[in-house]
């Protein structure tokens, strides 16, 4: 699961870098005079669940879009992603998977896990690029559940990811209220994994994370 998430996030970052590189080449060829760059921000969200989750529960993804509005989408497969573009800072990102047990859950041996991640890449007018992300730990072991009561107890603990990005492009964790997300906030396990992997790919020191 961790490999799949990092692959999806890598694709987003690589696309952003490719667009930047092409734009820079065009600017160098057409005009040698340096001008302020246009500010752009790429927001992204990822939710992934184990196979058993969709067997015993319905998953509704709640997120904050590029306008600051709260949106909802029903999760129909074990992977859900969303990428959004804006030119405005500051902004808030928020993500919560509302997981509701189905009406009739038979006894069984269920392995339940949800991984959530949110991140961004901000290209500022001064030419600086800042990126960061937060999320739950992709290495966490799934929770075993055998009864409907155990499934319901696990569903109630779905974590929330929330942070604000300042006009300077830097993130700080915050609480985003989707109405009902009373579980714990996601830790920063996935963000550290993203950071170390991304810096390694760029040839930088992953210990800087």
From TrEMBL:
<protein>
    <recommendedName>
        <fullName>Lipoprotein</fullName>
    </recommendedName>
</protein>
<keyword id="KW-0732">Signal</keyword>
<feature type="signal peptide">
    <location>
        <begin position="1"/>
        <end position="26"/>
    </location>
</feature>
């Amino acid at each position: 699961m961790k490999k799949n998430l990092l692959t999806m996030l890598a694709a987003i970052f690589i696309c952003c870098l490719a667009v930047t590189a092409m734009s820079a080449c065009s600017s160098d060829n057409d005009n040698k005079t340096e001008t302020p760059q246009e500010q752009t921000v790429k927001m992204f969200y990822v939710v992934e669940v184990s196979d058993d989750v969709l067997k015993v529960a319905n998953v509704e993804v709640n997120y904050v879009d590029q306008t600051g509005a709260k949106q909802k989408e029903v999760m129909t497969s074990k992977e859900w992603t969303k990428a959004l573009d804006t030119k405005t800072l500051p902004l808030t990102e928020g993500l919560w998977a509302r997981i509701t047990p189905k009406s009739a859950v038979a006894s069984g041996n269920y392995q339940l896990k949800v991984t959530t991640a949110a991140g961004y890449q901000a290209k500022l007018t001064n030419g600086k690029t800042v990126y960061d992300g937060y999320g739950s730990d992709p290495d966490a072991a799934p929770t075993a559940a055998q009864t409907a009561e155990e499934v319901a107890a696990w569903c109630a603990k779905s974590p929330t990811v929330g942070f604000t990005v300042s006009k300077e492009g830097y993130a700080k964790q915050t609480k985003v209220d989707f109405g009902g997300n009373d579980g714990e906030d996601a830790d920063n396990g996935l963000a550290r994994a993203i950071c170390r992997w991304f810096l390694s790919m760029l040839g930088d020191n992953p210990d800087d994370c």
